[in-house]
Amino acid sequence: MYTPEMLESIRKVEATRAARMGVEPRRMTAEEKDELLRAFHPDYRPEGFKEIKVGPNKGQKAPVELTNLLHANSRLLSGAPDLNKIDYDVDVLVIGGGGAGACAAIEADEAGAKVMIVTKLRIGDTNTMMAEGGIQAADKENDSPVQHYLDAFGGGHFAARPELLRRLVIEAPDAIQWLNNLGVMFDKDADGRMITTHGGGTSRKRMHACKDYSGAEIMRTVRDEVLNRKIPVVEFTSAVELLKDENGQVTGAVLLNMETGDYLVAKAKTVVIATGGAGRLHYQNFPTSNHYGATADGLILGYRAGAPLLYQDTIQYHPTGALYPSQIYGALVTEKVRSIGAMLVNREGEAFMHPLETRDVSAASIIRECSARGKGVHTPLGDGVWLDTPMIEQLHGAGTIEKRIPAMLRMYMNYDIDMRKQPILVYPTLHYQNGGLEIGGDGFTKTIPNLLVAGEAVGGIHGRNRLMGNSLLDIIVFGRDAGKAAAAKAKTVTLGTPNLDHIYQYADMLKEAGCTEEGVSPLLLPHYARHERKKGEHMREIPVSRITD
To answer: What number is the average pLDDT over the span 145-173?
Structure first.
């Protein structure tokens, strides 16, 4: 499957492997990391960002593709449904059918609330299902939530909101036990004790996993719990606008049936936004590991209604996205591959960084190796580096890869690449939305009564970079907490008359600011279509960031 040039590089990797086996590259100093990030991380490229002209974050920057969506108008300006015709009437409306949404719905139902999930694809068609490496929790004798906090706070460049990170690490052990009791099949030793490993930036082995199917196994379990509880799930239906009343509190949402194009009105005393990430906006033309529906919908809904964003200018590029073959371009190669022994090496077989640096540092190191140093491996989709996977079994014995990372092995075997015998090619892929809607420690937005946010749509939990295993953790912790808080709040809420005044006010602000972006937002689904070719014109892809109805 590899080209002659790649095979020649592999021979250099094999020739240096023995010397690399017993010697790990040194970790960078804080000063070296800062210099590296400023020079090579995509978050520091000015051309990738644009000033927000309206709303709570006016004057701040955001990725160009996200800003274009923030500068677009609501699709309901051209015709809104009758808000007096209520199609769904619930206590708690959960927008999003991933891990955070499912956990919120389970806990709201457990508290006795009438709850409903609405999701634009199917329940489980989310980034949760695609997470692989594991979930962190400080539940071993040599660890503590304090140590977990220090690792995550430092890894996030000391920018995490303390009240959010504190809640994440303190509630982590209980989250693991809750999942275990629901039936998640964590890796355990012969005595039934959970097996834990290191992740990038961790000082203790606190990564709990289900081989390399961790997200799929967690999503399977919480999805089954939702269905077993008979919680209503409205699939293939998107929330396109929040509803508010004359007192400014959220009163539900306008929904769009993705199959029929019909609008529906959902009335709710509390609303939980759990819409996930933004990878399918393909910031700076990077590939993505995200699922098809990850288009930042919740950020648009909340922002247009008046909720501020936090750290919207910080994105996580997972350092090891699949680069070759092209059929899996951008697919996630879990960090667990490195945590169990694989090393990143360049075209000459040289290890150029410690294998378990934080994700932003690792991604910037790979970009530097392929650009400034010119030591990347050439492929039809650009240069990348080797992840020396045969090291794993040389370190831990034959059968380790099949036992510990079977999904990775199978993915590559589909293309006649045996990662037990040959290294694999990787390059950073757009992976995680560090920023999102700003919430308080109770999960509620600070400016819109009765509106909560959970999961990847939240900003501030991880600061400006996230450590491996803390995203699966945050969807459980903040999803559960949001469900409990939403159910409790719903008991005291009295709703006024629903309206869409905020979308008209937002349109006026856009006009006043001179924003004339085409199309509407939220985007809902990415566009991968091609232009109809005119005579003499070459076929070219429509940019994914182009907003069309």
So the answer is: 97
Q: What angle do CA 343, 344, 348 make, to 5 degrees?
A: 115
318 is catalytic: yes
Question: What is the mean predicted confidence (pLDDT) over 403-416?
Answer: 95
Among 357, 343, 355, 352, residue whose Cα is nearest residue 375: 352
pLDDT at 535 (0 to 100):
38
Answer yes or no: are the C-beta atoms of 21 and 395 closer than 8 Å: yes
Give the list of residues 6+ apart from residue 384 with CB closer than 8 angstroms, or none: 323, 324, 366, 370, 376, 377, 425, 426, 427
Burial class (CB in 10 A: 0-12, 13-18, 19+), 52: buried
Q: Please list the residues that pair with 239 across neighbouring strands.
A: 255
Distance CA 289, CA 265 (A): 33
Catalytic residue among 208, 282, 338, 480: 338
> Which residue from 475, 11, 544 is spatially nearest to 288, judged by alpha carbons?
544
- Over the range 425-441, which residues count as b (16 or more CB within 10 Å of their CB) and which as e? bbbbbbbbbbbbbbbee
User: Which two three-digit tokens encode residue 196?
Assistant: 């834990």
Which pLDDT score, from 0 to 100, does residue 530 have? Answer: 53
Query: Do 79 and 261 meet the contact criterion of CB atoms below 8 Å apart?
Result: no
DSSP label at residue 188:
B
DSSP letter (8 states) at residue 412: H
Dihedral sign of CA atoms 379, 382, 385, 390 in order: negative
Residue 188 tokens, joined: 């355990």
pTM of the shown model: 0.93
229 is catalytic: no
* Spatial separation of the C-alpha atoms in residues 358 and 140, rounded to whole Å: 22
| Residue 237 CA from chain centroid, whole number | 21
Is the dihedral angle over the CA atoms 280, 157, 447, 267 positive or is it negative?
positive
Using CA atoms, how far residue 216 sits from 91, 131, 178, 210, 483, in Å, is: 29, 7, 16, 9, 21
Evaluated on CA atoms 454, 460, 464, 469, the torsion sign reads negative
d(CA 318, CA 465): 11
Residue 237 exposure: Cα atoms within 13 Å on the Cβ side: 20
- Mean pLDDT for the chain overall: 94
Is 80 exceeded by the pLDDT of residue 117?
yes
d(CA 1, CA 254): 49
Tokens of 130: 């695609």
Question: Can you tell me the distance from the alpha carbon of 99 to that of 275, in angstroms, rounded to the nearest whole number?
Answer: 10
Residue 242 bridge partners (DSSP): 253
Which amino acid makes up residue 487? A
**Which residue is catalytic, options 318, 368, 464, 502?**
318
The strand order across the sheet containing 436-438 reads 309-310, 436-438, 458-459
Report H helices in 317-416.
Answer: 336-339, 359-370, 390-396, 400-404, 406-413
Distance CA 458, CA 307 (A): 11
User: Who's near 146: CB < 8 A, 6+ residues apart?
Assistant: 169
Report cis status (omega within 30 of 0) of the bond before 522.
Answer: yes
3-state secondary structure of 86: coil
Q: What is the residue type of 481?
A: D
Structure tokens at 368: 């530097």
